Here is the input.
Amino acid sequence: MLEPRPSSALVVLPSPDPGGSGGSERRRSAPWKWQLANAVRSASELSARVQLTPEELAGAERSERQGFPFGITPYYLSLVDPLDAACPIRRQVVPHRLEGETTRGDLVDPLGEEAHEVAPDLVQRYPDRALVLATDRCAVYCRFCTRSRMVGGGSGTRSLEHLGPAFDYLAAHPEIRDVIVSGGDPLTLATERLVQVVAGLRAIESIETIRLATRVPVVLPQRITGELLRALAPLHPLWVMTHFNHPKELTPIACRGLERLANAGFPVMNQTVLLRGVNDDAGVLAELFRGLVRVRARPYYLLQADPARGTGHLRTPIAAGVAIMEQLWGRLSGIALPKLIVDTPGGFGKVPIGPDYVIDRRPGVTRFRTPRGVEVDYFDPTSE
Here is the structure.
């Protein structure tokens, strides 16, 4: 890795104000809106705050000119080590020259969502589930994003008229019981618009479960306000699916946001993306998963990173995830241990993977290798 370029004009951001107090009146009244309005979105702004390597500067300049944009809230940028290019927070959000390179298996639409779009911004890849894309805007643009083809550069918030055909389709297909509201990030929507979208779904009797897929609790925890929770409460049951990837993200304000969600009746499930140089280490993930459980967020999936175009430098081999799970299995509580999942390229569904603990099968008996290294036989009951 090249050394960071010297910079005499480096500006280090102050630590985030957990409550969003101080500063302008707008910041005092709506700190999450202040965070969005003041996100870093240009190479010049970023290089004033982070000592970029030549590869990062080239990536940021490329991102400005074409393709997948970048944007980082002041809060999340304050978690970045401005002098260390290997910082796990930095690797998630600072563009890199390698984003412009394609590696074997890279796909523009790795999950085949466009091929499974049954109405505008409604994707159905499973018989009983569907995905509503309510916006193409995010608080922060993660460099491993599976929807880098579409986020940040479109029309933004989807109007209710635009989503009308999606609601009609869902109402006409009662086999769909579970709807995920995603984007972009739905929690970047104005509260009134978010409530309208969720209320439209809740009005469809066959929909039993509504999930909000969001990284806002990680990158913009100021958004988890009493006003938001009170507005959504009448629409329960609602689940929150979030994406903490590193224990450094479990700051006091982020943990308070997770606790507020849990206290307000939202089951919180976490999907961690396995990323090279970020969390491809059993000790790091054990710390993350235990920290999440402490604040009642359930580690749900450990996701093999999707092969989105330009993410090869961030993805890990399948074998790396399997080896990590072998180190964690039997050493973490079941509620702290997620499933290792590959969302198969092309949109053909998720498959679980992991260590193989079955070492022999014979009629009536199966031999297991336990996490302690002991071989044990399990005998099937004899038929009467």
In short: The first helix runs from residue 25 to 29.
